[in-house]
Amino acid sequence: MGFQRRIRESKSLLTESIRIVFDESQEGIGPYIDIQHTDILEPPIHIQIKRIFTICRKPMKTVTGNKTVSTFSELKDSVEGDVLYDEMSRALYSSGACLYRIMPSCIVRPKNRTDVVNTVLYAVRKGVSITARGGGTSRTGNELGEGIILDLSRYMNKILEFNRNEKWVRVQPGLILSSLNEFLKPHDLFFPIDPSTEQYCTLGGMISNNSSGPHAVKYGTTRDYALSLKVVLSNGEVISTGPVPLEEKGREPDETETLERTAYKVLPEILKRYHGHMKKERPFTTKDSSGYHLWRLKDKGFMDLTTLFVGSEGSLGIVTEAKLKLMSIPAKALSGLVYLDDLDMVGEATQKILELSPSMVEILERHILDLAREQKEEIRPYLPEGVEALLYIEFQGDDEEKLIRNFMEVEKRIIRDGKLAIDLKVAKDAKDMDMFSKVRSMSGPILNNIKGPIRPVAFIEDAAVHPSRLPQYIKGLRKLFAKYRVDAGIYGHAGDGNLHNMVFMDLKRQDQVDKMVSLADEVYDLVLNLNGTISGEHGDGKTRTHYLKKQYPQLYPAFVEIKNLFDPANIFNPGVIVGGEENMLDQHLKHGVDYHIVPTGSLFDRKLFRTEIETCSGCGKCRSYCPIAENVQEEWAMGRGKIILLREILSGHLDSKALETPGFKKVMDSCINCMRCLKECPSGVDIPWLSVIGRANFIKRHGEPLGNRLLANKRLLCKTGNALAPLANLANTLAPARLLLEKTAGLDRRRYLPLFKKSTLKKAIKERVHPDKGKKVVMFLSCYSDFSETEGGGLGTLDVLGRNNISVLISDLRCCAITRINSGAIGPVMKDIRYNVETMASYVEQGLDIVFSEPSCALAVKMEYPKILDTEVAHKVAESCYDIHQYLMILYRKGELDLELGELELTVGYHNPCHLRALGVDHDIVELLELIPGLHVRQYSDRCCGLGGTFGIKKDNFDLSMEIGKSLFREIKDSEVDEIATGCGACALQIFQGTLRRPIHPVSLLAMAYKKRNRG
Ligand SMILES: Cc1cc2nc3c(=O)[nH]c(=O)nc-3n(C[C@H](O)[C@H](O)[C@H](O)COP(=O)(O)OP(=O)(O)OC[C@H]3O[C@@H](n4cnc5c(N)ncnc54)[C@H](O)[C@@H]3O)c2cc1C
Question: Which residue from 198, 209, 624 has its CB within 8 A of the most atoms of ligand 1, so it is best to mutate?
Fold first, then answer.
């Protein structure tokens, strides 16, 4: 045992990386060493290992994984929440929104404060570091650590108390900001700090980084709204912060000598000693998130530790509760765009606008405008040529006329009198406001959308100068970017002189890594020469801690003293704010020089997937839009989690055998192919496709499970149901039959199933007379409309097209196979896919279009077939395929749609299916329906219904599927509408399950309106 101790003592950093386990139960094996992190082993440790080898002279075994982590199992006994130390969990927490990859030893997800205290005491006892984590959206690497990751977002995410009259709320740190604001909205209150990550960052992370957003010019930063905190200190003591009269603290009896009491004694003394340096080295900026904030610690005889813990990046203690000040939601807002053709004028223009007390002044510099003009057609009209910078301005208030007068004043001061800008556009209506806001927030997606090895890198992304110094700052930046020959996008908060610079680099090349460090050195010199700060809102973390000494040459020792006071064992986020002797900016890069791809013998070895994986920036936005991640607040459920796991495997950090494990399959199965990633992910990473490939790999290795073969074979199921109807429908209602289905195919017995028709749509069509008119289209028959819902989408499409003198050709196309594709069983349906493409290609050659009444079939042909086959013909076919509503709207826009529609006095609630959304068909359908006289449409919020093909019908997923659909069901139930419409059979099924209302297909409403006209 002495050796074990010796190794532990030799380097605390490695205590959890190297473990010697004396496992008496495994006869003949003797002691063995866990060298799973050999990459970070340093020579002294190697020597020690050698000595152990020699001394023990017993067989040794190298092991990986949790077998050897006996120490953390001890922690399980004192924590009610989760303690995870298996390889996959650790891998999932090895990265975030930053540039880095650092493998933690263990993840603790506390359920309460006692769990946090026990984890802290354990960490001190064992010499393991603790890094608190919320949403993992930090840019700087302060959310990663080698020791324990304390994920507060999983359970400690509740609102504890709310006082409407006094306008405050008490919350746990893991609460997501937008969840808080959703709760406050009915009370006309909000938490006014708005980082762009507001839908997926936590209040704990915001407090620890002193976050802020574009509205900081009006509302300030998180520090201004933290009234008090509950913090667990390094000795396990829990303190409540807030203004405390210094004299009072001094009178407390000595026997209650606590860390808190020591702090109240020592801190005033530190402040006194460093008073001069605080004055001299305070950044001349309107926001600052660098170092420890000492300037508001003591005020008028009061000491408030809140202001110190805010912005301390988890390096002084763990915040377990916060009391936050709230504001009233402003009644009105008006926005405008100011165009400048001379960068020199930006600073003065911003200053003049600031004099009018705006709520936002944001800047986009020429490079981004140029890219936007190329990439985003819809906003092109707002981006004239020859503009050097664009300022987005917003005013808030109760009086609409005053808002307009503000803009008249802007026009006078900076255009007419000042000649600082060339044009001003003020929003005329809500649509303009929406478009202006799109212009303002386009930078991130535009920069991230560029695929390939050269990626936008965030390392000098957050410095700030006083707004009056913006021109010098921007000019200096441009000069440096030219000197280093790099492309960069500049945007951000002009009102606070806080710019987000994203530099395009390939950090897999050593010369680029070196360039990054040299560029950072020079940019920070530039910023500090302008009396700015290296971080305006994101914090220091691993990216910037090294530069703090440059920013605070005399004050930095005070930071060290404060760190030593609160965390003498250096367990809280070591190396963040204090440390940084070595520049960590270029260490542990997730896509750095050491990043290599190893062959896995799997489908993932294709370059295409590698590029996809490397495109993910890890920002974590998927937590906010992925229907699964939103409900299962876990890293593995997020798109980011899937990417991290794949990266770990493809780069050889995790054994490629992991691809074949049920754990990995579970992660891949947690995607329901709603395709939201393709629209919402700022980098457009195709998570659904990667998940399909993950499942395909699994099937390749283990074969396709019987349940999958039964459930995902839609056409077979429908054909059988159809042949046996009405017996099949009766069986559907009988408990024993449902139980049998649950046992054999895994279909949840509570699930309502579609009713099968005796006849098919194909037969019904043949029985109809439809003259061979001039124009012809091919109709792709979905299994749903062929065998079950024949009247709705199927006959409706036929009727509507017929009414428009378009005859419909029904061809013998096979099932689109979308459910089979999504389940990963692509091999068995390859023949059908090829057949469908070849058949459709022959129609396309004849100049025929193909229309679909079922969105999932359209999605299969338009989006999945081209990826599977990757042939020119598959792409060509895809271009000639249309969703029926899309097709009709094209006719309407060309003036070719018959508008002789009868009146339907109906209010219709419309749910847009995810697959139509993915195909870019959304508001089109509302517009189309509103052509019907008397018909009013209420479109429900853009939420997934939760069924996800076969996902929600499976026993294992039924509850989650219903939970996902809950908010849509509630909205439908609350809406007083005559009919509910949706174009997707699966959505209709789920809506019926959740509301007992049976939706109709939108096209059948049009068919009804035509019929009514005929009758009328
Ligand atoms: C695309 C993008 C845009 C961004 N835009 C903005 C922006 O507009 N404004 C802005 O301010 N930031 C922005 N950020 C940075 C980041 O989103 C914010 O700093 C956010 O507040 C971090 O919250 P989080 O929950 O993700 O914290 P994490 O990343 O999980 O953690 C951040 C820090 O807080 C510490 N921490 C977390 N919880 C606790 C706790 N309970 N106790 C003690 N320490 C804790 C962590 O140890 C870490 O040091 C952006 C990031 C990205 C990727």
Answer: 209
